[in-house]
Give the backbone structure.
Amino acid sequence: MTSDPNALRSRRAILAAAAGSAAAVAASAALPLGVAAAPVNMQTEQDNPTGATTSITYTDPTPLTPADVAFAVTTNGPDAAAIMATNTDTGAAAIVAGIGDQTLAQTDTSFTGTYAFAPTNPTAGFVSAGVWGDSEDWGVYGSGGVGVFGDGFFGVVGRAQDGGGAGVTAIGFTDNTVALDVQGKVKFSRSSRVSIGTGKSSVKVTKAGVTSSSRIFAVLASNRSGRYVRAVVPTTGSFTIYLNTTLTSAAFVNYFIIN
């Protein structure tokens, strides 16, 4: 006959069911907490503590096209940060970002606020950037014992836009503060040498960017007794080096341009 689901259960059946439930509870208590944990939705306007990695896996539907973003954050307000990352422990970066297959050792990100990696750009004329900062004021700002430190074939590269400004600006806090400290060789593209021929006492050098306000220093680079640089006179696009008298044999003159 068909059993009635609403029929009263016997006392023995009730005890058996209770014993089975107790055994199940005991078994679940013996399992590791990680197994018992279940993923939950992240909640806004509160802290979301976790002991496991929360990740997003994004598959690009349109490769090699711009505006492909896996995770985007937008803020409204002049004093609202889009993302703030803080590491309260030592030995790991607060943010690790990368493009491509880059395996990071633990020491690579120890005591680092942000670690970012990008491979070489295969497109001619374009460069890749591990970190790109863009602002109408300071694109990247660094402060601390050393504000910005660069280590590479070119440690730090600065390029000025056309129309003014400077590729790199060094500012001393006061007039008594060292604005630029160079340890090692210095190379200037606007320093060179020029030859003055036999029987000549002057030479004109054409150089773009020179003005009447330029400061140009010159000195003989060949040993010519009784001869020396008497004056250097700049004008628009060129300058003239004058010796105190004519040469009996050709000589080189080194020059250095400021402004």
The two ends are 108 Å apart (CA to CA). Residues 68-123 form one domain.
